[in-house]
Design a protein that fits this description.
By secondary structure, this protein is mainly beta. The protein folds into two domains: about 90 residues, Elongation Factor Tu (Ef-tu), domain 3; about 70 residues, SH3 type barrels. It has a six-stranded antiparallel barrel with strand order 1-2-5-4-3-6. Strands 10-9-8-7-12-11 form a six-stranded mixed sheet. A hairpin with a 2-residue loop joins strand 3 and strand 4. The N and C termini lie far apart (about 45 Å). Its main location: cytoplasm.
């Protein structure tokens, strides 16, 4: 399976026990829906390798404690530390209304209530303190904050996101 067909679930951050259990820092708002998984894809080198799970349970708030079938000692667990975990996109629960997954809105047109069509979502930058839509309009790039006060409507059928950009923001980029 290719990474493009998967979503990032989290990262192995440490060992939990001498029996090879590991702790995963999850990248999700709903950690409990991943509590009873049967398998995950672990990024090793350039490959996604399926790992089957004997036992999987929440540990504290956003950590998942996993006992893999193939990992039963500390040296094997050590090799997984820092590895990223993925699941197929088909396992994502569908979102409705104004909630969306970042990967699903790539290519959507941003419609501002004052300026109309201000461009197409090229990507989402989630590395800053504020997540941003990276929008392209011709040869210009705009950065629109992702937040409930700005997003009025996500229209999946027409692939558009209706926003009320902060005053002066669109002029700053396109003016």
């Amino acid at each position: 399976m290719r990474k493009e067909d998967c979503f990032y679930l989290g990262k192995v951050v440490s060992k939990y026990s001498f029996k090879g259990e590991v702790l995963i820092k999850l990248d999700t708002d709903e950690p409990d829906i991943y509590e009873n998984m049967e398998s995950v894809l672990v990024s090793l080198g350039n490959n996604l390798v399926p790992f089957f799970i004997d036992r999987c349970r929440l540990h504290k708030s956003n950590l998942l404690r996993i006992d893999f079938e193939e990992v039963k000692d500390e040296p094997t667990a050590d090799k997984l530390i820092g590895s990223e975990l993925y699941l197929p996109l088909t396992m994502l629960p569908p979102l409705t209304g104004n909630k969306f997954y970042y990967h699903e809105v790539i290519g959507f047109t941003i419609l501002d209530e004052v300026h109309g069509d201000i461009g197409v979502v090229e990507s989402v930058n989630d590395n800053a303190s504020q997540d941003l839509f990276e929008v392209k309009k011709g040869d210009k790039e705009l950065f629109i904050p992702i937040n409930d006060d700005i997003i009025n409507k996500v229209d999946r059928e027409n692939k558009t996101i209706h926003v009320k950009a902060p005053e002066g923001l669109v002029e700053l980029y396109l003016g």
